[in-house]
Amino acid sequence: MVNLLEINNLCIDYDSPRGKVKAVHNVSFTIKKGEIFGLVGESGCGKSTTAFGISRLLRPPAQISAGSITLNGQELTHLSEAEFDKLRWSHISIVLQSAMNNLNPVIKIQEQLIDAILAHKAMSAEEAINHAKYLLRLVDINEERLANFPHELSGGMRQRVVIAMALALQPDLIIMDEPTTALDVVVQNGIIHKILELQKDFGFSILFITHDLPLMLEICDRIGVMYAGELVEVTKREDLMEQARHPYTQGLLESFPPLKGEKRRLKGISGHPPDLVTPPDGCSFHPRCPYAMLQCKQKEPEKLHDNKGIIACHLYQEGGHRFEQLQTTSEGTK
Ligand code: SF4
């Protein structure tokens, strides 16, 4: 599959009175056409900041300080606001956690959908209304709801409207930032199934962001795990289900109850994420890692690529306990 999105060494900083907050540090990953790629990690790990950087929604004091973002071969970081606006909705759109962050509470659904359509596509008012009706039908909402204000819809319906809006111009990439977190599990299940159905029908790629790793394991093709602003592991869903490699990923998995099999006591991850103004030397996870060694405190682990993806951990580097495992998987690619 061809790469749709390529992120290379992306760095996003926030200026603060205490110094630079390195919210995203040297993050690199790709999303293929038609792929669902997940970004997971604790709150504050940089996943939403990465999404906002891609979709040009960062506001000062946040800024992209280094790196590149390429969509369909076009470098995005150099584009002016006007140039980027041409890509918004038609090539890239975003669904935020709470529908009320996407919807204007004092404007009816019809006007909001039509505004988005007409801002980017030339068509008559009647065609735009018909398109808005079509979009609502796509997400299983009666077209009569076009006459409603957002507060007259349930939370699940509002999120479906936002998904319809994101689909309005059939973009190549939809970023979904915790799209179901604010909803109860039954509504969440319905929305997730609708997203998967639409993705299958239209073939767009999704960057899906959540702290809910089990949900990600159900829907994503590949998963990137972020910790303290860095991408520490990227792997295929099947490989993650079989064996998470990074100690932080293992800790995340052990923080959720298993959906199948025997009940087990949840372990969780001790401690707290680091202060991103003064992150620890070496591996930023070392104060919380049960496998931390001397070199973990001294040297940042390199990001190693193999047939399973990317892993940044000294355990998998020369001399590390899991180095042989990495060698075996690398030989598999030859
Ligand atoms: Fe743990 Fe060291 Fe690996 Fe960091 S590099 S995750 S501290 S083993």
What report would you give on this structure?
There is one protein chain. With 334 residues, the chain is of the alpha/beta class. It has helices spanning 47-54, 81-87, 99-102, 109-120, 125-138, 155-166, 185-202, 213-219, 237-242, 247-253, 294-298, 323-331, and strands spanning 3-16, 19-32, 36-40, 62-71, 74-75, 92-95, 173-177, 205-210, 222-227, 230-236, 304-306, 309-311. The chain is globular, with a radius of gyration of 21 Å. The mean pLDDT is 90. The site of iron/sulfur cluster (SF4) has 13 residues, from loops. Iron/sulfur cluster binds at residues 247, 283, 285-286, 289, 291-293, 296, 301, 313-315.
Short description:
By secondary structure, this protein is α/β, with parallel strands linked by helices. It is 33% helix and 24% strand.
Runs in which pLDDT lies below 50 for 5 or more consecutive residues are none
| End-to-end separation | 19 Å
Query: What is the β-strand count?
Result: 12
Structural class estimated from helices and strands = alpha/beta
Provide the gyration radius in Å. 21 Å
DSSP helix count?
12
| Order of adjacent strands in the largest pleated sheet | 6-7-8-3-9-10-12-11
